[in-house]
Write a structure and sequence with these properties.
It is a single chain. This protein has about 60 residues and is an alpha+beta fold. It has 1 helix and 4 strands. It is elongated and about 50 Å long.
């Protein structure tokens, strides 16, 4: 994958395997971003919005 620039594996690997991953992928930044940019819907009272932006027209 030529276009892959970074991969986040926070909490998925212990220190040893994480170092192996980093050494085998020297051009890839491992765990560069602590927070994901992927929007995930919330649950409970706020289940109709993401970061304060309404995402559903009808409340469930």
């Amino acid at each position: 994958m030529v276009s892959l620039q970074a991969v986040n594996v926070f909490g998925m690997l212990r220190e040893g395997p994480l170092e192996v991953l980093k050494s085998n992928m020297p051009r890839i930044e491992v765990n560069r971003f602590q927070f994901s940019e992927v929007a995930r819907p919330t649950t409970g009272i706020r289940r109709t919005s993401i970061w304060g932006i309404r995402v559903r027209d009808n409340a469930v």
